[in-house]
Design goal:
Blueprint: H1 15-23, H2 30-65, H3 77-96, H4 103-126, H5 142-153, H6 158-169, H7 171-181, H8 192-224, E1 226-227, E2 230-238, E3 242-249, E4 255-261, H9 271-289, E5 299-304, E6 310-315, H10 322-329, H11 334-353, H12 369-376
Antiparallel strand pairs: 1-2, 2-3, 3-4, 4-6, 5-6
Helix pairs in contact: 2-3, 2-4, 3-4, 4-5, 4-6, 4-7, 5-6, 5-8, 6-8, 7-8, 11-12
Length: about 375
């Protein structure tokens, strides 16, 4: 444990420090990456449903157009591609639901899934029986729409999105050339494939811009979560006064719990009230840093962020809280209750002696610990 007498506000970064910090690329927080991987799974499940619905509606449309022809009942290459896409989509959905998966790898896998989906769409539209002499006009295909969807939902670096998006957008031109080589569609000179699908490449450029914006927003979240030497991680809990996150020290690698408190939660309605709230917070935090009871959570650090958020860096306890203990095991034996309450009262007595906790009318915390514990039972 750190010496509480040496605890104080975190050092303020100098402009040079901030410049160096901006120059370094920040990775997105792990919790945001995990949430993005879950969104990828939901999107893949949606794609599986769309593939099924599209094939079924396609067969129903064929029946409506050719009621006397058995074509609507035939299983062709488009059905095979749709089936493979459904299987791949469901497999990706299941994979994203495995908690031990690396979210960065899952998101990279999502880009490969995007390319596969673009390939499947291109096969359906260009190898599924293209009519001879079909018109060659610039168009935005489903491939371009898919690339935009992935850029907005699956965070990736602009470079990765540029490469994956270019490969995905190239599926239509490539399959058009394959279709011509197989004699399915004689559309003329090869340059017409670019005339028809150049809008998709424009959408790839838009997707790169979107990826850049999404990445920057994620990095801003990372910067906002940097509390001096501590980096925020997963959310542990949320209450009326603020939120508690698990955090790690950049150098020491020890876990900690950081509680964030907005000044308005302390009754600060204007600038003057906010200053008073910060002053009171610092005074009480300094007093809390001097608590020595072994039953009190240790305070490592405290401070105020640039946006006025107050924070406390506390000892991280990995275990079960009292409410969970009671819900799991039911009523506790009297001896164990007294043992727990003695520890609670020891902590409260020290806090009260420093003016941090006020005694209630029904409990006299200045009484001997054993008497107080027994009165609470």
């Amino acid at each position: 444990m750190a010496d509480k007498h040496l605890i104080g506000p975190l050092p303020v970064s100098t402009p040079a420090d901030l410049t160096r910090s901006r120059g370094r690329s920040r990775e997105l927080p792990d919790d945001l990456l995990r949430e993005a991987s879950l969104r990828l799974g939901i999107m893949s499940l949606l794609f599986a449903v769309l593939w099924i619905v599209g094939v079924v509606l396609g067969h129903l449309a064929a029946r409506a157009i050719y009621p006397d022809h058995p074509r609507w009942m035939q299983f062709d290459i488009t059905d095979a591609i749709a089936l493979a896409s459904v299987i791949a989509s469901l497999a990706l959905f299941v994979y994203t639901r495995r908690g031990e998966r690396d979210p960065k790898f899952v998101l990279d896998l999502g880009l490969w899934y995007m390319v596969f989906t673009a390939f499947a769409l291109a096969v359906m539209f260009h190898l599924g029986g293209v009519p001879e002499g079909g018109a060659i006009l610039p168009e935005i295909s489903w491939v371009g729409a898919v690339v935009l969807m992935f850029a907005a939902i699956v965070p990736s670096t602009p470079k990765k999105m540029l490469i994956a998006g270019f490969v995905a957008a190239s599926m239509n031109p490539i399959l058009m050339l394959v279709s011509r080589s197989r004699g399915l569609w004689n559309f003329g000179p090869a340059r017409r494939v670019l005339i028809m699908h150049y809008p998709d490449y424009i959408l790839v450029g838009a997707a790169v811009v979107i990826s850049h914006v999404v990445t920057k927003l994620g990095q801003q979240v990372t910067r906002a979560r940097e509390m001096g030497s501590y980096q925020l991680g997963e959310l542990l809990g949320r209450g009326g006064m603020g939120e508690v996150y698990k955090a790690t020290h950049r150098m020491l690698a020890r876990p900690a719990a950081i509680k964030l408190i907005r000044t308005e939660m302390l009754g600060a309605v204007d600038d003057e009230a906010a200053r008073l709230a910060v002053t009171r917070f610092r005074r009480e935090a300094e007093a809390a840093a001097n608590l020595r009871s072994q039953h009190t959570v240790e305070l490592y650090d405290f401070g105020v962020t640039e946006d006025g958020t107050l924070y406390l860096v506390m000892e991280f306890l990995d275990g079960m809280d009292l409410e969970t203990l009671v819900r799991t095991n039911g009523p506790l034996p009297t001896g164990r209750v007294i043992h727990i309450l003695r520890q609670v009262c020891d902590s409260l007595e020290e806090a009260h002696s420093l003016g941090l906790v006020h005694a209630t009318e029904s409990i006299d915390v200045s009484a001997p610990i054993h008497q107080l514990a027994e009165s609470l039972v």
